[in-house]
């Protein structure tokens, strides 16, 4: 019996990656959409959303930790899938950019959560304070500038690893390159661009599921 455990673990690895990736995608897109609906795009707005849509933001903030954990699992399983084909240079950037994205994701959630807690404690004083505007601008910068750029680097390096190792179809890598460039240079002008990263992970994870149950429909190239 003990001899069968490693092989079973290996066989479950692709499916685990798919489940983790899909879970991350769904939770991240839900969180982003809730924040998009509830919070105005202008980081200098007066805070009216705290009075009318704080519930939606609270739900988004509570979903974000689970989404980040799922992405970390997805990264770990992809590294296991690479195995001995893993290149140290690209693996370092791949893993590092993924961890940076998760850290930014958690940091933004913490800032927004702190604003919600402070608002409950003293609504009038918070909205009119410099602290609120600082926290609002900080959360905006983390989510819309640094986190998106980290996601673009992750997509770019993952796509490069895919091309060199052949662990996924080439079209997935080319799609990753195109979306990464869009995030790097056009995210400021396209507000919904934050959805591109979880959507790409969703496509990647769906291909893993298809390759597991219908191998003939998921060719490597």
Describe the 3D structure.
The chain contains 8 helices and no strands. The protein has one domain. The two termini are 37 Å apart. With 221 residues, it is mostly helical.
Query: What percentage of amino acids are in beta strands?
Result: under 5%
Overall, the morphology is elongated
What is the domain total for the residues? Answer: 1
Over the alpha carbons, how many angstroms does the gyration radius reach?
Answer: 19 Å
Going by helix content, strand content and strand pairing, the class is mainly alpha
End-to-end separation: 37 Å
Helix fraction? over 70%
Low-confidence parts: 1-11, 213-221
- Count of helical stretches: 8
Task: Give the tally of β-strands.
Answer: 0
Biggest beta-sheet profile? none
Order of helices and strands: HHHHHHHH
Average pLDDT over all residues? 82
Give the arrangement of secondary structure elements.
Elements lengths: L3 H35 L10 H4 L1 H29 L5 H34 L1 H5 L2 H36 L4 H17 L9 H18 L8
Give descriptors for this structure:
8 helices; mainly alpha; disordered N terminus; disordered C terminus; 221 residues
Brief synopsis:
With 221 residues, the protein is mainly α.
């Amino acid at each position: 019996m003990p001899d069968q455990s490693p092989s079973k673990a290996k066989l479950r690895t692709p499916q685990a990656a798919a489940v983790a990736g899909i879970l991350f995608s769904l939770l991240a897109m839900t969180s982003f959409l809730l924040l998009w609906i509830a919070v105005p795009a202008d980081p200098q707005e007066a805070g009216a959303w705290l009075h009318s849509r704080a519930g939606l933001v609270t739900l988004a903030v509570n979903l974000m930790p689970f989404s980040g954990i799922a992405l970390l699992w997805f990264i770990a399983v992809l590294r296991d899938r690479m195995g001995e084909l893993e290149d140290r240079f690209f693996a370092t950037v791949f893993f590092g950019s993924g961890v940076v994205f998760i850290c930014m994701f958690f940091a933004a959630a913490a800032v927004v959560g702190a604003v919600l807690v402070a608002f409950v404690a003293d609504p009038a004083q918070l909205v009119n304070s410099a602290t609120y505007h600082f926290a609002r601008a900080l959360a905006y910068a983390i989510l819309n500038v640094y986190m998106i750029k980290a996601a673009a680097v992750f997509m770019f390096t993952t796509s490069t690893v895919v091309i060199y190792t052949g662990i996924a179809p080439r079209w997935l890598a080319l799609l990753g390159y195109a979306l990464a460039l869009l995030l790097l240079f056009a995210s400021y002008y396209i507000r919904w661009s934050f959805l591109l990263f979880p959507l790409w992970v969703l496509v990647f994870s769906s291909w893993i599921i298809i390759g597991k149950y219908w191998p003939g429909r998921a060719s490597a190239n």
